[in-house]
Structures are given as C-alpha cells and as structure tokens.
Specification:
Blueprint: H1 2-11, H2 18-39, H3 44-68, E1 78-82, E2 86-89, E3 95-98, E4 101-105, H4 107-137, E5 146-150, E6 171-175
Antiparallel strand pairs: 1-4, 2-3, 5-6
Helix pairs in contact: 1-2, 2-3, 3-4
C-alpha cells in the first residue's frame, strides 16, 4: 500500500513525505529479511540468536515508522453524508421515503491508516518471532561423543574358559 503513495509522489515529481517513506523502507527491508530467514530456516539452530537480534532491530524500526506516521491515527477517514430524499407512492400500500444517507470514504486516508495499523501489527509479529528465535537457540547444546573400542571378537584363549559376550558387530559404543 505504501508503494502506491511513493508511486504517486514520483509521478508528480515531488518528494515523498518522511512519514510515508520511513515506514515504506522498513517494510521492504522486513519483507526481504522475512523471506531470507524463511528459506534458510534449516540453519536456524546455528544462527537463531542472530535472527532474534535482527528481529528485535526490526521491532525498533517499525516503532520508529509508526511514530513517524502517528498523525494519521486521529484522522476520520469516513463521513456520513445526507443528500436529497425522494418519496415513492405505492398506492394502497402507502409510500416509501428514501432519506439519501450515504457513506463517503477517503481512500488516501484509509490506506494510510491501514498502513499505520499494519506497522503496529508488524511490531508485534517481529517481537513474537524474536522471542521464538531466542527460544530455539536458547537451549544448551548437547554433544554426543562416540567412544569406540576395538577388540578381538574371540579374545585370547589361554586355557581357561571365559564367558563370552556376543555382539552383532565388533564395536561397542558408549554414549557420553
């Protein structure tokens, strides 16, 4: 939606207001970041703290963008209008009067207000994904070491009979 406004200002060879431009740039960068982390999700365990930190940076950037566009929050984008009324005579059934009440919606105001609301929602969503990323990487890393012991399958036979443990392979694994 914000690109609609940027396009209008570019077509009219005018500078886009900072309040629109800040939120537009943050939104574009956030989309690129979200798509990038989506496609590299398989590596999320290794870089989850970094992803969480960058998501927190986007929370701050969206707060700045919403703050820059805060003027739209008090605007009323819809107006109730009254026009001419007309009466229709239905004979024996009576008459019907239409009062001419309508609703006028300011498209520009509505789109800016929706963009402002989406900016607030993005603050919340990026904060949640930041918490989730910190939780994914917050656990203690457990490493598994495999200790292998090699030995003869039959052992040394020195005349005395020893009990023999059978195993399916010649290696025994101990997990630490």
């Amino acid at each position: 939606m914000l690109s609609y406004f940027v396009h209008i200002y570019i077509e009219n060879n005018a500078l886009t207001p900072d309040s629109i431009l800040v939120l537009f740039i943050v939104s574009v960068l956030a989309v690129v970041w979200a798509i990038g982390t989506l496609f590299t999700y398989h590596r999320s365990k290794e870089n989850s703290r970094f992803v969480g930190f960058v998501d927190l940076l986007f929370v701050g950037a969206f707060i700045g963008g919403v703050y820059a566009l805060r003027g739209i929050s008090t605007d009323n984008c819809t107006k109730l209008t009254t026009g001419n009324s007309w009466t229709a005579n239905l004979g024996l059934l009576g008459s019907v009067t239409y009062g001419g009440v309508g609703l006028k919606i300011d498209k520009t105001c509505s789109m800016l207000k929706a963009s402002w609301a989406f900016g607030i929602m993005n603050c919340i969503f990026f904060f949640i994904t930041s918490l989730l990323a910190f939780m994914v990487g917050g656990g203690r890393k457990e490493e598994v070491f495999v200790r292998e012991s090699h030995g003869s399958r039959h052992g040394h036979r020195s005349g005395s009979h020893r009990s023999h443990r059978s195993s399916h392979s010649g290696r025994r694994h101990a997990y630490v």
